[in-house]
Amino acid sequence: MPFKSIIALVALVAVGFAFFALAIDNGFWHGEDFLALEHSLRMQEGSIGIFESGPPYKFQPLVYGIYYLLFNHAQFNTQFYFIFNILLHGFNSFLVYLLVNTLLKDRTVALFSGFLFVFTVGSYGKSVMIVSGLEDLVITTLTLLTMYFYFKNELDAEGKLHSHWFFLTLIFFIASMLTRSTSLSIIGAFLAFNLFFRGRGNRRIFRPDFFVLLAIAVAALIIKTTVFHYTPLFYTRDPGVARYIYYALKNIINYLVRMIFPIHTTNLVAEAGAAVRFVYSFATEIRVLLALTVLSYSVFGFVFGNRTIRFFIAWTYIMVLPFAFFQFPNDWLNIRHLYLVSVGFIMVISAGAVYCSRLIASHRWRRLVPILVPVFFVILARFIVTQLDGSYELKAKSPKAGYYREDLARKFQRVVVEDGQLRIVE
Description:
By secondary structure, this protein is mostly helical.
């Protein structure tokens, strides 16, 4: 690895650790946290295996395998889980840096992108600050590695099937199917890349390596649905075809708007002070304005942007698509789902800030004005992360979390609750 890349990796991991150190003392509180603990305990007993997917578990053997290894080492020490999340998040930020630098050949924009991602601009930290957010982090790692090696294979090996780049692509693409499914989104991103990066030779969009990966994705989906009873779509009730399409399109726009204006009507708003409550009183108007801005900027970027900007705009829409079909027609959208989606968002912000600054480089101070946009989002992310941290600490001490702990102790004789904490009795 080049020395500059090593420096970037160390810096991003260090900044990520500093930014999220406040979350290390958070505890287990989310229902999925305790579900992961229960799965690990049952694996220790031998009553279920890593491929268990019957309710209440999901088909994500790779994630359950990681939980099992963590649990064998740390048991109920939440600090260890959060440190692992933070380190993995820092590594993901480094992968974002590599990805952008590979496509754009601009280290400054790549570094901006990596640092905005480590500050969780666009996703705002929930995946890092919840133990069960590990599944968001893992699928992002696998997706970014798959995309990076696919791009290297296309750009450096002309899409050859026998290159080491394609071999690595296959490994991480197959691994991605052993966690929450994003394989069809990855295929869509491959297709967008092939379209925008055809090069001067006007190479084919549908290439042999693409068809190999598509065949693997389809075969994996068939196996998962038939053998492991995987169900990729979830909604509270069947709204009919017309409303199904309407709600999905609405969710896409709502998710993209929440990358910019992420605050829901929750205690975070009620307890955040008069200024936040005043801003949120105009939430509907702000979101309508932002929706129009996002759509118009998307069109503008496709028409006037370079191929890399076009690709990352397409990335944002493609990656958010699977989550548009979850839990509608409910209005509550989980910004945890934006962790992977936000890669396209932060790249567009970084490129816009750097390019605009370069256009006015002759102006000593005014050239810094475009940098205020990413700085604003970093401040917003810090505010939300701080608010979430306080909220999660309270939730870990809440009666609901206490019920989850007692329920786990009832299911396993060797698990006890002492002073409000879980412990294993040997």
